[in-house]
Amino acid sequence: MQTLDEMRRFTVARNFLPPTTLKAAIQKMGFVQADPIRAPARAQDLILRQRVKNYRAGDLERRYSSLDVDEDFFINYGFVTRKLQALMHPRSELAAASVTLAEAKQEQLLLEFVRERNSVHPREVDERFGHGRVTNYWGGSSKVTTRLLAEMHYSGLLRVTRREKGIRIYRASEIALAPGAGRIGDPFSSASIDEIERDARIDGLVDTLVRIYAPLPSASLSYYVRQLRYAVPQWSGELTNALRRARERLAHAYVGGLDWFWAKENGLSSATQDRVRLLAPFDQVVHDRARFETLWGWAYRFEAYTPLAKRKLGYYALPLLWRERVIGWANLSVRNDQLHADFGYVKSPPRERAFKRALEEELERMRAFLSLDTKSDG
């Protein structure tokens, strides 16, 4: 690759292969970022609809138990394949090393309660134990039992078996069912993993993030590798060496004044398609904001948490990709079972008929995704 135009085409081509089944798409990606905001659908659904044939909003949640996936942290929170999750765990001895004796007792009692019930709603746990309230990460107040459930989930003692109205329903994980699980010195501790296996696991995690988010400029590659501290906090001190190994083995090129890295690709077509795509704020093409500005020449910002008076694009603006360029954004809403769309453009909307036709086709796909039967011009 010699030019940014080629890099743009490559970025779009490698991220939008022909749609496949939900199970195949998730297994290929390894990780899908989650976000609870629904405007007009959750981020994980908006991401998957571009990659899964006939995908409908909520399919991931409806089919969760049959997909060989779990909710967990990778570079952030989302859905991971069991294969990817196996590279990250166990993390549990970290929690064991930091808790007090009283907290360890609470944890043990809670784990026994979950095992007895098979699966539990946080409300059941709070009714049983009623541990009070604490200040959470966002500065608000959370039940102590809710916090304990989240910490035990992160450490690998619990897994999310399903959701009810968006609430996580927990059960004991396979690791938690083993004697002494989560304690330093037991066979499920990361201390039992030798240096060769540790490096292989970390390299596997790096390869996964590269497969999802590449091509990446050098600074972005460094950022994403550092984000793996959420996946493997027990090995966060090894990430600098993992980054060095990645730079040595990945394909790379100097384009537009930057070093770019990606996994070697086979047989990718860079032909331009006359297609419009409305992308999730956390879609792989959009996720790296620095790369976004480099490739498309303007700054996209996620403004759901920005005060209304300071918003420039809108509450949940979806970047609008036309052919290989992101030329604007759309804010979508559903009112009275009709889809309404407000568009903004970096310059002006293309005047060619092909664009207008492609935009309407994308809105039709969005209506089908949202299971809407009627049309609206917004």
Write structural notes for this entry.
The two termini are 40 Å apart. The strands form five sheets. A four-stranded antiparallel sheet has the order 11-12-13-14. A three-stranded antiparallel sheet has the order 1-3-2. A three-stranded antiparallel sheet has the order 8-10-9. 35% of the residues are buried. It has 378 residues and is α+β, with helices and mostly antiparallel strands. The chain has helices at residues 4-15, 22-29, 43-49, 59-62, 82-88, 92-98, 101-117, 122-129, 144-155, 195-213, 218-227, 239-249, 284-287, 289-296, 353-369, and strands at residues 31-33, 69-73, 77-81, 133-135, 141-143, 158-164, 167-172, 216-217, 251-255, 258-262, 276-278, 318-322, 325-335, 338-345. Among the domains are: 92-188, Arc Repressor Mutant, subunit A, CATH 1.10.10; 276-369, no CATH class. Helix content is 40%, strand content 19%. It is globular and about 65 Å long. Helix 6 crosses helix 9 (144-155), helix 8 (122-129) packs across helix 9 and helix 11 (218-227) crosses helix 12 (239-249). The chain contains 15 helices and 14 strands.
